[in-house]
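The protein record now logged underneath.
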Amino acid sequence: MASANRNQNATVMFILLGFSDYPDLQVPLFLVFLTIYMVTMVGNLGMIVIIRYNPKFYTPMYFFLSHLSFIDFCYSTVITPKLLEILVVEDRTISFMKCIMQFSFAVTCVVTEMFMLAVMAYDRFVAICNPLLYTVTMSQKICFLLVIISYTWGLISCVVFTYSLLILSFCGINIINNILCEYSAILSASFSDKHLTEVILFSLSNFNTFCTLTIILTSYVFIFITVMKMSSVSGRRKAFSTCASHLTAVTIFFGTILCLYCVPSSKSSWLMIRVSTVFYTVVIPMLNPLIYSLRNKDVKEAFRKLVDIKVFSH
């Protein structure tokens, strides 16, 4: 059955409409997204290099941050080049397998980032609520384990979601009114019975969102209670400042995804859906390194030194 589907799906094509209904904006959008992509690459790779080669950043918080930057780098690389391509070429088609591959890599990055943000919230919880046990609770071994679990669950989710699409049958040329191959668009193009696939989508998506949001919200509830019990105003300010960057990143990431799934799939909302998709697939990977660097004096200083070294080396 699966083999027959693969043979049948080999000739299937998808057309990514992107922003083709705004022809006058194609070139300006290309330049904007190209700039965002370049900033994303420099920002995330720069963050990884700074954390990797500066002993000052050999802490669990920066260890997790380096992996968040790596995920954002991969995520942007999966989505943005194809987006740039469909903005400048007339042929916006993508084969079935390439579409599935783009979706697979994207869902791996999204799920892994969700759990990485949850891990980072737990790290802040331990640092503020149990500072005396921090080095034991967040040992190097535990940190590696938490990162491995995040990547592993991202891959497991990817396999489940991808398999649920591969068992379906498709035919001909199908239109995706978005900038990327996303689950619901691929699913709607199939003429097979979609009940099982829809159940898998609903169950796993809600499980991932519920688990990560529960960890994040629970961590911040305990953090807030602990900080409010502090008698020192400067102590409160310092504690909140260590969480500000992460809380900002979490709010933007989950807020955008939740807003996207709350948008009804009507013709009048297609532009809103595409803009929201661009924001969480293209803009957020650029924002994360900016959020963490602009609010962190150590990162800004390290980045300045790195730039000075490169300038003087030439």
Q: What stands out?
A: The first strand starts at residue 13 and ends at 16. The beta strands are 13-16, 93-95, 173-176.
